Amino acid sequence: MRLVRILAVTFAFALVLAACGSSNSKTTSTATTTGSSATTTGSAASGATVNAAQTPLGMVLVDSQGRTLYHFTPDTATTIACTGTCATTWPPLTVPSGQKPQAGSGVTAALTVVSRPDGTQQIAANGYPLYMYSGDTKAGDTHGQGVGGKWFAVMATGVSTGAAATPTTHATTATTAASSGGMGGGY
Fold it and tell me: What share of the chain is helix, strand, coil (3-state, %, to 5)?
């Protein structure tokens, strides 16, 4: 019975890693700063508000449903590395085209919008494109923290909980190469 559990856990971990595999195809991406104030409240559109919530990791950014928001260390403010099946395991936090993300109470991070290779608009905090983790099943879960050594929650201030993470500067408009299609994610 113990062997079956070990095999099941190993298989689940392998699936997560496979979902964040790498791809060699490239796509151009544009990042646009939309600006946001920490005193702004309310939602411009469903899923467009980023909030702060207390978790075992401290006060972190969460989506409108209280799910912890993470960043992927290979991403920058202008390069999206998690695409394809990676984005299925790690759904990007998006906002409808033309909408600006809103900062809820306690959020001091600068919120921006980054164009993903598929054209959707992904919310970024202090240059970190934000993602949810499919393994987090309820508000306050932090199961994605440290996965693969590349996924880390983002504090309400916009600072990563990962030791070696450094965001890219906040360009108002920038163009750079981004991974696209395939497995994406650079694992």
Answer: 15, 30, 60
